Each structure stands twice: as structure tokens, then as C-alpha cells.
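can u pls check wat happens w/ S-adenosylmethionine
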Amino acid sequence: MELWYTEEHSPNCRFSLRVTRQLHSEKTPFQQLDIVATPEYGRVMLLDGLVMTTDRDEFVYHELITHVPLACLPEARRVLIIGGGDGGTAREACRYPRLETIDMVEIDGAVIEAARAWFPDICAGFADPRLNLTVGDGMEYVRKVAAPYDAIIVDSTDPVGPGEHLFNEAFYRDCYAALGEQGVLVSQGPTPIQPEFAGLLREQAEFIARTFDRLYLYLGHIPTYPTGTWCFLFAAKGGIEPLGSRTDAGWRTFGERLRYYNPGVHRGAFGLPNYVRRQLDGLIANDRLDIA
Ligand code: SAM
């Protein structure tokens, strides 16, 4: 008997993976959590039937969402990760010896336990003594932080389910307040190329553009996310520039161990296709960047 996993990207578009084994299935208090083994992408974590992370392409997303902001913050010592239960973003942040505090707030403890059980390479950062793992709602957490952060990375699920209220203006205002005088928030955003998602992206960009000093967008190619073209919103506070002259060489101490990120990828990610610039016209500042 053939087993296939299918994710519906729209009523007329589906993405399927052959499955060799169902490894885990659990209805948590927040979502349906499944882990399957696939010949094409290795182990795949699904939340409410949507691909979260896969053995084979997770490095693209986790390196992009982490190294782009941290490379712009050479003085950064304190980082907050909201969501990120699979551990990939924490693993990448833990590569920076200069970080003193890496706080991570994941609403669903079952995701953390499943990551420990089935994705030990992705959640390797969980063993780092600087990592403070809290099981809780990122929206509530960010309202009452003890000390300012240099970077906030919002690695949550899509704007449905527990992640829904992480896509609203009040949350971004609280994140702005939780950052120090100079800081960056990066949040993953939906694909710009599919109509069903494009409206969500513009709405998310409007919330952030109204809250932060400047908003930039960068793109990455993640084969197992809808259409493969994926967005990251780079929200700057206090004049931080994504291609600033003070980009930190700190990542060079481990650069060779990275599989995706490098300075060329960093710069190129902010070069946007015309359709994306038009879609987010008036909201993003990428045209101010010197991207030769
Ligand atoms: N890379 C994935 C993506 O692009 O969809 C995200 C992976 S990570 C598994 C997403 C995590 O966000 C999930 O573990 C989910 O439980 C968590 N999450 C959703 N809403 C949250 C909230 N309000 N506070 C904290 N974590 C949340």
C-alpha cells in the first residue's frame, strides 16, 4: 500500500510527499502534531497538517531567520525566539559565542519533546546553558520582559491556530517596546507569489511598518513551503540597516559549517523581484538599500 502526505496550498494546488512511516501522532492542547518519515526529505514535522520542518531543507529557513539579523547586530548579547519549537533557530543562535542570553518561548511543550525525540540535530541548541526555554504564549511573554533584547525572532506557525495572535499590531508594538534602543525583529511571512497568501503578507507588513522605524523584506527558497518562495520581514528599531557597514564578521568563526548563509546570500536576499516591490509598495524600504 502506498502512503502519501498531502498539503493543500490552495483549492487548486497541492504538495505531496511519499511517506514510509508515521513516527508520531498526537493531539496536543494546541494543535495536531505529526512526524512522518519520507524518502525525499527525511523526517518531516507537521502541525495541523502543515510542513514545519524537514531534515533535508530546514537549514535554509533556520540560517536565514537567524544569521541575517544577527549579522547586523555585532553588539547583540540578548536574543528572544518566539515559537521555534523544533529548535532550529535556537541552534543557529547558539553558534554565536558573544550571545549571553537566548530566551525561547514556545507555547506547546509537546513540540519541544517531539523535537528532542525525533530531530536531535535540529534541536542541538537545547543543550546550550545560555538557552532559557519557556513553555508559554509569546504574546503574553513579550508584554513583560525583564530586560531589553537586541533581537527578537518570531519563528511561529502561520496566522491560524496558536500563532494567529502573533500576526497583529498589538504584538508588534509590544515587541518594539521589548527591544533596546537599537534592535531588530525578524518574523517569517507567507509567500508573496500565491494570491491566498499575498493579502496576509501585506497585512502583516502594514502592522509592522506602522510599529517599527523601518521595514525591509528578504526572500529565501524553501522547497517544502508553499511555492518555495518564502518571506522574512526585517523590522528595524533605532536605525539598524540590513546591509550596514558594521555587518558582523562574527559568523565567520563558524561560517564553513553553515550550509546556506554567506555575505552574498545576505545581500541578495534583500534584492526583490518587481512584483514583490509593487505588492508591498509604500511599506518596505528595500529601495533605499545599495544592492548592486
Ligand atoms: N518554520 C515553521 C514555519 O515556518 O511555520 C515554524 C516552526 S515552529 C515548529 C512554529 C512554532 O510556533 C510551533 O511549535 C508552535 O507551537 C509555536 N507557536 C505558535 N503560536 C505561538 C505562540 N503564540 N507563542 C509561542 N509559540 C507559538
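The chain has eight helices and 13 strands.
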